[in-house]
Structure formats: structure tokens, C-alpha cells
UniProtKB/TrEMBL annotation:
It comes from the Bacteria. Its main location: membrane. Its EC number is 2.7.13.3. GO terms for molecular function: ATP binding; phosphorelay sensor kinase activity. The lineage of its organism: Bacteria, Bacillati, Bacillota, Bacilli, Bacillales. This is histidine kinase. It catalyses: ATP + protein L-histidine = ADP + protein N-phospho-L-histidine. PANTHER family: SENSOR HISTIDINE KINASE YPDA (PTHR34220), SENSOR PROTEIN KINASE HPTS (PTHR34220:SF11). It is an enzyme of class 2 (transferase).
Length: 587
């Protein structure tokens, strides 16, 4: 008996401990460390996010306050009506003095943010009212002159005015640094004044600019609220730094690049109304020391658990492997045919139950194997004998009737040939009680049957043999070709002539026989019935008989297949192996 190499149970048990105990401990420790580090980072990020969000909310509130003032002008239809219907003379002067200017001052004073308001009007009947600041910052003297009024032609050729977005009612506005805003550290809210009372269309009647100091708008941005080592950057839509709170190597106007801070925690949030970014940069050193402490503690715990599990695993695997080795030695003896070896374990555990079961199995298995083997052989012989006995009982009756008819008409020559072929046919069929016979004899038996039928059908029946000589060295179970020839002669006639071609050849290391006829063919429904495994169906009986005998002897991979088309003919394909099975003697 061949011995197979295998990994001993003790080693497998030890490996299982390593895989399912030690490795999970290492993995869990690694993830615990990662989770703790991540938790520290997330807590810091959450804290910074909250602080930055509060700062941004404050900035948004101040920006919203400026926007609310612009909304007063934008949605005040009385201002739009005054600007559209303004008249020269005393009426216009009174409207300007008693209505327009007071309303502008009231709206502007409603803002809590110090702003410089500039209004540019299309209606040139309004007089301009402004102060010559001589290059100074208008916001410095804003208390004396809170606003300026200009004609629109002062800005109509300005790039920032020409590039202002198409008007969407109540939505189009932009924060932008224009003119001298950058010089004086300001930013301006730019917005149209429109009139909708003309055919429902938006008509620009003016333009407003509200300028506010960046320091006022971003007053809430303070790096000390995050940490002494932190820095907060205010970044515009062009990715340029506009303000810095805290220690930094950047300067105002530099291009922002987050990749410069690979060793830092960078948290960026957008100020919604301005579309500017607030970036908080925090060095990793503030939590790196805690991370190192956690990693060292995790390593020590993991090392201790590894040593403990390794020692306990080695002891347990040695204890159980001794019992398994004894069981394996008994099974090896059983495999070699020795069912007398026994093993016993103390106690009442699973190994004791296995040993008792093995001992009982060793006592009975030889006898059971012998009984099953003999019973299987008897069953197979009985089934083959039954199928063999079912072959051709009506053929003998028909042939004897033909012999009687020939004798009656005195055709002694034909009678003699028919008797000789009939004797040859049954001599080969009986085959001294053997199921197997050489393929050459199987073909001789088919030819004997054909000779008998030619005496009956004469020239109306034609048969051609196409046999590969290579297959004659093999054997087959008997009577697998003749039943299909008989089936053709009984059912396949198309007119008064029929021709058959019998082929024997090698195909994919198997032997294939084909019985091909040019008869009437078989309908699809009838073909399905012929392949039906139920014995109660009368059609296809001979076909099922051959198919069952082949499968019983050679296995399910072999058997009979039928292909047919009405009016064209039928092909029966019989597939058997090229092996030479031992002869099975039937007593």
C-alpha cells in the first residue's frame, strides 16, 4: 500500500494556534493601536473643525450683514421708482433730499460692519455726490461721508463691471477685491440695482459697491483659539493667501499649496458667501508623543500574549497529537487489509469513543466488505442476464416462419442459406455464456442477420460496411449492433427500398459505431419517447435495452445516441470504451 506524505496533526494543531490565536492577537493589537491613534486625531480634528466652523459662522454673519444692507437697496421698489421717474428741478431736488438720501443713510446705518458704500446710477438727472479722497482710504473718513453717489459711466469701462455675471433676480452678487481694495486691505460686495416694473424684464438702473476691511470681516479668525503652534490662513478664490493668523513662513499674496504641510494636520473650510477658504494648520507634534506611548504599550502586550500562547499551544498539541497518531496507525492497518489491530484510551472523551468505534469496525468490516462485494457481483450478473434474455425472441419466430414458407415453396437453396446464417447468428449470440466477444464476431453476427433479411427483401435492401481495422483488436458486449439494423428494417422503410451504412471507427480513444439509414426518419415527439427511461413506454424498447446494457457494463459515460430528421434518415451512434474488460461468465 502506498504511503502518502502528510503534515503531522501536532504541527497542524500548533499552526492552528498560531493562525487563530497569535496572529489575531497581533492583528487586533495593530488595529487597536490604529483605532486609538485615529481616535486622537479625530478628536483633534473634530475640535479644530468646531472652532473653525464657529469662526466661519461669525465671518458669514458679518458678510451676511453687508448682504442684508444690499438687499434693502435691491428689493426696495420705491428706490427703483424714484431712480426711474426722477425729474429735474424742485420736484427732483425734494425727492432726493427728503427721500433718497435719508433712505440710503438709514440702510447703511443698519449695518453693524463699517463699510464704504458707492452707488453708480444710470439716471444722470441725479447729481453726483462724492468726496475727493486724494488717494486716501475712504473708510478712514467714513463718518463724515458715509456714502458716495456716481454716474454709471465712471465704471462702464472697468473690467470688473464688464465681467459681472448675468443677472439672476435676487441672486447675482460677488465678493471681489477691485480698484484699491488690495492696497487698503479691503474686499467689496458688488451688485446691480434692477427694475422689474417694465414688462417683467430686469433693467439695470444702478450698481452698488460695499467695501469692508478684511480685518473687520475676519475679526473672529484667531489662531490662539486652536493652539499656540497653530496657524490660520485666509485664501481667496485664486488660491492666494490674503490673511495670516499665527506663526508662518507664508506672506500675504503668496500662492497657497497644502502639500507644503505634509507633516501637519490641515483642515480647510469654505466661507459660503465669499467662496474663500479658511485653512487651519496644526503641527503633528502635539499628539505624536501620545502615539509613541500607545505603540510601545501595544508591542509589550502583544509580545507577552505571543509567548503565553506559544507555550500553551506546544503543550496542547503534543498531548493531542499522541492520541491522533495512535488512531492513524490503526487506520493505516485497516487500509492495508489488517483489521485485527486495536487501540484503547482511558477516559470517556471523544478520543475514547473513536477508539471504541474503530475497534468495532475492525471486527466487522472485513466480513461486511466481502458480503457487499459478492452481492454487487450477483446483482450485476442478474441484471445482465435479464437484459440478455430479452433480445430477439420475435426475430427467431419470424425467421422460423420464413424457413417454413421457403420449405413450402421448395426454395431449398435459400432455405439452406437461411438456416446456416440463423445457426451462425445464435452461435455468436450464445457465445458460450459470455457477455463479451471480439468486435469482429459482433460484426459477423450483424452480417449473419443481414444475410437472413436479404433472403426476404432481396434487392430492395442495401447494406455497406465501413469498419476501421484498428478496432478489431478490442472486445464489446454482444448484440449492440443487430437490434438497430432490425429496427431500421421494421420502421424506417421509405418506399420499397432502403439502404444502410454501418461504420466502426476510433474517436477520442473510444470506439464508435454508427448505423446510418436513408429511411423515413423519426419525428421529434417519437424520438423523445424513444429516449424516455420509463420501461412502460412501448416505443424504443430495443434501443433502451442496448443503452442500458452498455451503461450497466461500461458506466454512464457510454451508451446510445440517436439523431434523425423526417424524410432524410436516421443515425444511431453507439459509444464504448477501447479497454478490454475481463470476460464475465454467466453460469
Amino acid at each position: 500500500m502506498r504511503k502518502y506524505r502528510y503534515l503531522p496533526f501536532g504541527y497542524k494543531l500548533m499552526l492552528s494556534y498560531c493562525v487563530f490565536i497569535i496572529i489575531p492577537v497581533i492583528v487586533i493589537s495593530f488595529f487597536a493601536n490604529s483605532v486609538y491613534v485615529k481616535s486622537i486625531r479625530e478628536q483633534l480634528e473634530s475640535s479644530v473643525h468646531g472652532t473653525v466652523s464657529q469662526m466661519i459662522d461669525n465671518v458669514s454673519y458679518k458678510a451676511g450683514d453687508v448682504i442684508r444692507v444690499s438687499n434693502f437697496f435691491y428689493f426696495d421698489y420705491t428706490i427703483a421708482r424714484q431712480l426711474r421717474n426722477f425729474e429735474e428741478g424742485w420736484v427732483g431736488y425734494e425727492a432726493t433730499t427728503n427721500f433718497f438720501y435719508p433712505k440710503i443713510e438709514a440702510y447703511k446705518q443698519a449695518s453693524s460692519v463699517n463699510t464704504w458704500l458707492s452707488i453708480y446710477l444710470h439716471n444722470k438727472l441725479f447729481s453726483e455726490m462724492y468726496r475727493n479722497y486724494q488717494g486716501n482710504d475712504p473708510l478712514r473718513g467714513n463718518s463724515d461721508n458715509p456714502y458716495d453717489i456716481y454716474h454709471i459711466d465712471r465704471i462702464q469701462k472697468k473690467i470688473w463691471y464688464l465681467n459681472h455675471s448675468e443677472e439672476l433676480y435676487g441672486e447675482t452678487m460677488v465678493w471681489k477685491q477691485i480698484e484699491d481694495d488690495t492696497k487698503f486691505g479691503r474686499i467689496s460686495l458688488l451688485r446691480r440695482l434692477v427694475n422689474m416694473q417694465i414688462s417683467g424684464k430686469l433693467q439695470e438702473i444702478g450698481f452698488i459697491r460695499q467695501s469692508v476691511y478684511l480685518s473687520d470681516l475676519f475679526q473672529a479668525i484667531d489662531y490662539t483659539k486652536i493652539g499656540s503652534d497653530a496657524t490660520i490662513y485666509i485664501i481667496d478664490e485664486d488660491e492666494r493667501v490674503k490673511m495670516i493668523s499665527g506663526p508662518s513662513s507664508y506672506r500675504s499674496g503668496d500662492v497657497w499649496d497644502a502639500t507644503d504641510f505634509k507633516d501637519y494636520m490641515v483642515i480647510e473650510n469654505v466661507v459660503p458667501s465669499l467662496e474663500w477658504n479658511v485653512a487651519a494648520v496644526i503641527p503633528n507634534t502635539i499628539f505624536q508623543e501620545k502615539i509613541n506611548e500607545v505603540r510601545l504599550l501595544t508591542f509589550i502586550i502583544c509580545l507577552i500574549f505571543t509567548i503565553v500562547y506559544f507555550v500553551s499551544g506546544a503543550l496542547l498539541s503534543n498531548y493531542f497529537s499522541r492520541k491522533v497518531n495512535k488512531i492513524v496507525s490503526v487506520l493505516d492497518s485497516f487500509q492495508e487489509g489488517n483489521f485485527h489491530k486495536r487501540t484503547n484510551f482511558k477516559g470517556n472523551d471523544e478520543f475514547s469513543q473513536i477508539s471504541r468505534a474503530l475497534n468495532e469496525m475492525g471486527q466487522n468490516i472485513g466480513e461486511l466488505i466481502h458480503k457487499v462485494y459478492v452481492a454487487d457481483l450477483d446483482k450485476k450478473e442478474a441484471e445482465l442476464d435479464m437484459l440478455q434474455a430479452q433480445i430477439n425472441p420475435h426475430f427467431l419466430y419470424n425467421t422460423l416462419s420464413s424457413i417454413s414458407r421457403l420449405a413450402k415453396f421448395g426454395e431449398l437453396d435459400k432455405l439452406q442459406r437461411m438456416v446456416i446464417d440463423l445457426a451462425k447468428f445464435y452461435r455468436l449470440s450464445l457465445n458460450e455464456g459470455r457477455i463479451m466477444l471480439p468486435i469482429g464476431e459482433e460484426l459477423e453476427q450483424a452480417k449473419a442477420y443481414i444475410n437472413i433479411q436479404k433472403i426476404k427483401y432481396e434487392e430492395r435492401m442495401g447494406v455497406t460496411f465501413d469498419i476501421d481495422p484498428q478496432i478489431l483488436q478490442y472486445s464489446t458486449i454482444k448484440l449492440i449492433i443487430q437490434p438497430f439494423i432490425e429496427n431500421v428494417l421494421e420502421h424506417a422503410w421509405c418506399g420499397d427500398r432502403i439502404h444502410m451504412r454501418i461504420v466502426g471507427e476510433m474517436e477520442d480513444n473510444h470506439i464508435v459505431f454508427k448505423i446510418i439509414d436513408d429511411g423515413v426518419g423519426i419525428s421529434a415527439d417519437l424520438l423523445e419517447q424513444m429516449n424516455d427511461p420509463e420501461e412502460s413506454i412501448s416505443v424504443g424498447y430495443g434501443i433502451r435495452n442496448v443503452n442500458q446494457r452498455i451503461k450497466l457494463y461500461y458506466g454512464q459515460a457510454f451508451g446510445v445516441s440517436i439523431f434523425s430528421r423526417l424524410g432524410i434518415g436516421t443515425t444511431v451512434l453507439i459509444r464504448i470504451p477501447t479497454e478490454k474488460p475481463a470476460n464475465l461468465k454467466i453460469n
